[in-house]
Amino acid sequence: MKIILLVGTRPNFMKVAPIIRAIGRYNSSLSSKSIEPVLIHTGQHYDYKMSQIFFEDLKLSEPDIYLGVGSGTHAEQTAKVMMRLERVLIKEKPDLVTVVGDVNSTLAGAIATVKLHIPVAHVEAGLRSYDRNMPEEINRLLTDAISDYLFTPSPDADENLRKEGITDKKISLVGNVMIDSLLYNKQKAEQSQVLSQLGLRQGGYALLTLHRPSNVDEKESLVKIIIALKEISQRIPIIFPAHPRTRKNIEKFGLQSLFEDKHIYFIEPLGYLYFLKLMMNARLVMTDSGGIEPETTVLGIPCLTLLDTTGWKETVDQGTNTLVGNATEKIVAEAFKILDGKGKKGSIPKLWDGKASERVVDILTGGKGL
Ligand code: UD1
Asked: How far is the CA of 42 from the centre of ligand 1 (A)?
């Protein structure tokens, strides 16, 4: 069985790495029938620190095929992936294509594949923020509508799919593949020297990431957030590895001077292991990344999500996550609560246990999941 695994952006790599490892384990448990994995990178993310460093940290083998699509408008990026992938699919004739998450490469991969009548598996299916202004929400809705296997991380996700009329036969609750990567790499991350390199101590800093268009593409929203950060940084230093989109916009809006503050460390994006170590030891994480919400819940670190909605409802209901949007006062008030020792404790959702990828491979090879 030939399975294509499609990646394109930073949050895809840690979702596919454990699936490839699970395929390896499956293959070595058999003498005959085996899976041939083919890793395709669309090139949606291409900077060393947005892509290659993750291959190194996660010990992912180099992609078998690189589509080199790069940046562009949504339509350009999606169309380029579809056109370049279609050619590859016709040549490779895979039995199945696996797409992960909710980025433009995910949707483009799913469309190009189903149109050639090749089955698609969507890993991390069923997440809904119910906010159609988010490009990711459109990508998720459409990818789920046309996929043959829908591998979900939670019962909430199953329910979302059922509400859209998707038949139970296609839905498999497997858990969270991103957490497979986190648990697998936690010990290795412990050994990273990033804290001493940045002069930080355990629990002595807040960690921030910011890249959503709704927060960083309009000057007004970005300024509201930066004012909150300046206030919070009077009580605790903030480490801010900035996404290229955010860095460019800060420069475009002439906001660099707001970061000339020794309490906010404006640094380059970090690799997987460095970032994991920083998360594990932070007093508080502030983010608008969909990946960091579940990761902080599993690590038991309080997280403020600078969005009004989330696809990861269980991280709010059960975990350590609080939605704060981007209003200055709300961000500051919730951050101060955490600094005053009143952060959420939370618990870990069921099946976020490091075995989601094994369940995926088991089901793809005819099993019923573990
Ligand atoms: C994409 C995903 C988003 C995900 C995020 C993780 C979509 C619609 N969005 O957003 O869901 O959370 O990745 O990072 O797919 N750029 C670089 N170097 C790179 C990549 C991008 O400089 O390696 C710059 C380019 O100027 C580009 C901009 O960042 O125009 C945005 O990149 P893009 O891939 O369009 O979206 P992200 O904001 O990264």
From this structure: 12
How far is the CA of 353 from the CAs of 171, 191, 328, 359, in angstroms? 19, 22, 36, 11
- Residue 114 CA to ligand 1 center (angstroms) comes to 25
pLDDT (tens digit, 9 = 90+) per residue, 208-249?
999 999 999 999 999 999 999 999 999 999 999 999 999 999
Name residue, tokens 């290229």.
Answer: 244
125-141 burial: b if 16+ Cβ within 10 Å, else e: bbbbbeeeebbbbebbb
Residue-level pLDDT at 31 = 67
d(CA 96, CA 340) in angstroms, rounded, equals 51
Packing angle, helices 356-364 and 10-28, rounded to 10: 60
Residue whose token pair is 């600078």: 306
CA distance 223 to 221: 5
- What residues have CB less than 8 Å from 80, skipping those under 6 apart? 67, 69, 70, 72, 108
Q: Please tell me if the CB atom of residue 211 comes closer than 6 angstroms to any atom of ligand 1.
A: yes
